[in-house]
Design a protein that fits this description.
single chain, 125 residues, alpha+beta, 2 domains, 4-stranded antiparallel β-sheet, 3 helices, 4 strands, 25% strand, rod-shaped
Amino acid sequence: MARVWRTIRGYIWWTHERGSFHYDVMVTLILLFIFLAPYAVDFNDKPTERRPRQTEVVVVPDGDQFVYQIDAAAVRGTDDAEIRRSLVRIVEPIAGEIELIRYQAVHDRKGNLTLYKAWIRKPYR
């Protein structure tokens, strides 16, 4: 019985000599676990699908200004000041420091708000 416990303790503390039968058994068990466990055990470690909302921004030159067409779903706010801040927040990562001259809400035939046109100018330094 003491011999069995010595063998088990050797497996736990990894004290068997390299190249011995018990060492080969331990390595084989580890390799079997590495290669077969993903098929047999569900570890729930799949990455979650994250789709960040892409804001489509179309830029059209207009003299010394640019007209940015921004999807209405990306713009937050109900009053003029909030809409202006939201438009600047969306355009600045694309264009850098900007000056919002004016904006216009564009509706489809059914009257649904689809996009905003924002006239943008880069400030002179």
